[in-house]
Amino acid sequence: MSIASVKSEDEYNTLINAEKTTVVLFTADWAEQCKHVQDALEELAKFLGNKLQFVSIAAENFPEISMKHQIEAVPTIIFFTKGTAVDRVDGVNVAEITAKCKKLGGSVAGESLEERLKALTNKADLMVFMKGDRNAPRCGFSRQLIEILNATSLPYETFDILNDEEVRQGLKTYSDWPTYPQVYVKGELIGGLDIIKELKANNELEIALKG
Question: Which PANTHER family has this protein been placed in (predicted)?
């Protein structure tokens, strides 16, 4: 799977409005740094080409398109989903480009994300999705929850949603629960901090957490 080179504005519009997410490299033949990014995209296209399409466009040959997307320097990469720009990387940052391609390529397959979330929620009998981890909670709600759980002496594991945006957003839909922290027992959502506090107040917490 190679990188398509845009020959006309019509072709460009067709490509960015495709079903697949499109990775567009705004480039220039004279800029050596563009070659590094193009090489990286060639490699990414080999294993993500079935989920993403990769396109290059000579920025100076299409000034209206470049102006529309505020291309001030090359290389610039813009990611499009059905014609809408959803992300971008300015300059030579191959690590960031790779990470964003993998993220957008992975999220195309909704089923694989669902399978991953199912596996994560079942990783331990008592699983907590939170900001930070048990040793360093990064919000007040998460900190309160960890204090309550530690007082029960029950074993549990935590997952830091700040390190994984795909899980952070996906879990909200997966469990139909919009906020964090979230507590799961044997793969089933128990709830957030308020519900845990309520269970504790009613002396039902340990029974609920043991499933």
Answer: GLUTAREDOXIN FAMILY MEMBER (PTHR10293), GLUTAREDOXIN-3 (PTHR10293:SF73)
Of 121, 101, 126, the residue nearest 50 (C-alpha): 101
Task: Provide DSSP, 134-153.
Answer: TTEE-SHHHHHHHHHHHHHT
160-194 burial by CB neighbour count: b if 16+ within 10 A, else e? bbeebebbbebbeebbeeeebbbbbbebebbbbbe
Residues 119-167 have pLDDT tens digits of 899 999 999 999 999 999 999 999 999 999 999 999 999 999 998 888 8
Domain region containing 160: 112-210
* pLDDT digits 0-9 by tens, 53-99: 999 999 999 999 999 999 999 999 999 999 999 999 999 988 889 88
Examine the fold and report which residue of 87, 108, 129 is the final residue of a domain before the chain moves on: 108
The span from the CA of 96 to the CA of 94, in Å, is: 6
Same domain, 13 and 78: yes
Task: Answer yes or no: are the C-beta atoms of 48 and 105 closer than 8 Å.
Answer: yes
Q: What is the CATH number of the domain that holds 91?
A: 3.40.30.10
CA gap 92, 76 in Å, rounded: 8
